[in-house]
Amino acid sequence: MELYRGAIRSGLLGDGERLPTVRQTARDYAVAQATAAKAYRTLEQEGLVITRTAAGTRVAPGASRAPQAVVERIRDLVEVSADSDVSLEDVLAVLRTLWTERGPAATPQPEKPT
Fold this sequence. Notes:
Elements: H1 2-10, H2 22-28, H3 33-45, E1 49-52, E2 56-59, H4 68-83, H5 88-101
Antiparallel strand pairs: 1-2
Helix pairs in contact: 2-3
Protein backbone atom coordinates (compact mmCIF):
# COMPACT_ATOMS: atom_id res chain seq x y z
CA MET A 1 0.00 0.00 0.00
CA GLU A 2 2.81 2.40 0.83
CA LEU A 3 4.27 1.89 -2.63
CA TYR A 4 1.00 2.83 -4.30
CA ARG A 5 0.47 5.78 -1.95
CA GLY A 6 3.95 7.06 -2.76
CA ALA A 7 3.51 6.48 -6.49
CA ILE A 8 0.22 8.41 -6.43
CA ARG A 9 1.50 11.29 -4.32
CA SER A 10 4.70 11.64 -6.34
CA GLY A 11 2.80 11.67 -9.62
CA LEU A 12 4.23 8.38 -10.91
CA LEU A 13 0.62 7.21 -11.05
CA GLY A 14 -1.46 10.02 -12.50
CA ASP A 15 -5.09 10.96 -12.05
CA GLY A 16 -7.34 8.37 -13.65
CA GLU A 17 -4.55 5.84 -14.13
CA ARG A 18 -5.62 2.27 -13.48
CA LEU A 19 -4.01 0.21 -10.75
CA PRO A 20 -3.44 -3.52 -11.26
CA THR A 21 -6.23 -5.83 -10.16
CA VAL A 22 -6.29 -7.01 -6.56
CA ARG A 23 -5.35 -10.47 -7.80
CA GLN A 24 -2.35 -9.13 -9.75
CA THR A 25 -1.22 -6.98 -6.82
CA ALA A 26 -1.41 -10.00 -4.51
CA ARG A 27 0.74 -12.00 -6.94
CA ASP A 28 3.22 -9.18 -7.53
CA TYR A 29 3.82 -8.60 -3.82
CA ALA A 30 3.37 -12.19 -2.65
CA VAL A 31 0.52 -11.37 -0.29
CA ALA A 32 -2.94 -12.83 0.17
CA GLN A 33 -5.70 -11.40 -2.00
CA ALA A 34 -7.52 -10.33 1.15
CA THR A 35 -4.46 -8.30 2.17
CA ALA A 36 -4.27 -6.62 -1.23
CA ALA A 37 -8.02 -5.91 -1.16
CA LYS A 38 -7.69 -4.36 2.29
CA ALA A 39 -4.86 -2.13 1.06
CA TYR A 40 -7.01 -0.96 -1.86
CA ARG A 41 -9.91 -0.23 0.50
CA THR A 42 -7.58 1.84 2.68
CA LEU A 43 -6.37 3.82 -0.33
CA GLU A 44 -10.00 4.40 -1.28
CA GLN A 45 -10.89 5.56 2.24
CA GLU A 46 -7.98 8.01 2.04
CA GLY A 47 -9.41 9.41 -1.18
CA LEU A 48 -6.45 8.34 -3.29
CA VAL A 49 -8.28 5.85 -5.51
CA ILE A 50 -11.78 5.15 -6.77
CA THR A 51 -13.01 1.61 -7.40
CA ARG A 52 -15.82 0.99 -9.87
CA THR A 53 -17.25 -2.36 -10.92
CA ALA A 54 -15.96 -3.31 -14.38
CA ALA A 55 -13.74 -0.18 -14.49
CA GLY A 56 -11.30 -1.32 -11.84
CA THR A 57 -9.42 0.84 -9.39
CA ARG A 58 -8.12 4.17 -10.64
CA VAL A 59 -6.26 7.09 -9.11
CA ALA A 60 -8.77 9.64 -7.86
CA PRO A 61 -8.87 13.07 -9.51
CA GLY A 62 -6.50 15.45 -7.75
CA ALA A 63 -4.80 12.71 -5.73
CA SER A 64 -1.72 12.29 -7.87
CA ARG A 65 0.53 15.04 -6.61
CA ALA A 66 2.11 16.13 -3.41
CA PRO A 67 3.15 19.77 -3.73
CA GLN A 68 5.93 20.04 -6.31
CA ALA A 69 8.35 21.50 -3.77
CA VAL A 70 7.90 18.44 -1.54
CA VAL A 71 8.42 16.01 -4.43
CA GLU A 72 11.56 17.86 -5.55
CA ARG A 73 13.07 17.90 -2.07
CA ILE A 74 12.31 14.22 -1.58
CA ARG A 75 13.98 13.43 -4.90
CA ASP A 76 17.02 15.41 -3.73
CA LEU A 77 16.98 13.49 -0.45
CA VAL A 78 16.84 10.17 -2.31
CA GLU A 79 19.73 11.16 -4.55
CA VAL A 80 21.96 12.43 -1.74
CA SER A 81 21.14 9.44 0.46
CA ALA A 82 21.91 6.96 -2.32
CA ASP A 83 25.18 8.77 -3.17
CA SER A 84 26.13 8.62 0.52
CA ASP A 85 25.15 4.94 0.90
CA VAL A 86 22.53 5.79 3.53
CA SER A 87 19.89 3.07 3.71
CA LEU A 88 16.19 3.69 3.23
CA GLU A 89 15.62 2.50 6.81
CA ASP A 90 18.05 5.12 8.13
CA VAL A 91 16.54 7.88 6.01
CA LEU A 92 13.05 6.98 7.25
CA ALA A 93 14.24 6.84 10.86
CA VAL A 94 15.76 10.31 10.60
CA LEU A 95 12.68 11.66 8.81
CA ARG A 96 10.34 10.21 11.46
CA THR A 97 12.47 11.66 14.25
CA LEU A 98 12.58 15.13 12.71
CA TRP A 99 8.86 14.99 11.91
CA THR A 100 8.06 14.02 15.51
CA GLU A 101 10.23 16.84 16.86
CA ARG A 102 7.98 19.31 15.08
CA GLY A 103 5.26 18.36 17.55
CA PRO A 104 1.56 17.51 17.31
CA ALA A 105 0.85 20.13 14.64
CA ALA A 106 3.05 18.18 12.21
CA THR A 107 0.93 15.05 12.42
CA PRO A 108 -2.75 15.34 11.47
CA GLN A 109 -5.00 14.23 14.31
CA PRO A 110 -8.26 12.37 13.67
CA GLU A 111 -11.36 14.48 14.07
CA LYS A 112 -13.31 13.92 17.25
CA PRO A 113 -17.04 13.22 16.87
CA THR A 114 -19.23 16.13 17.82
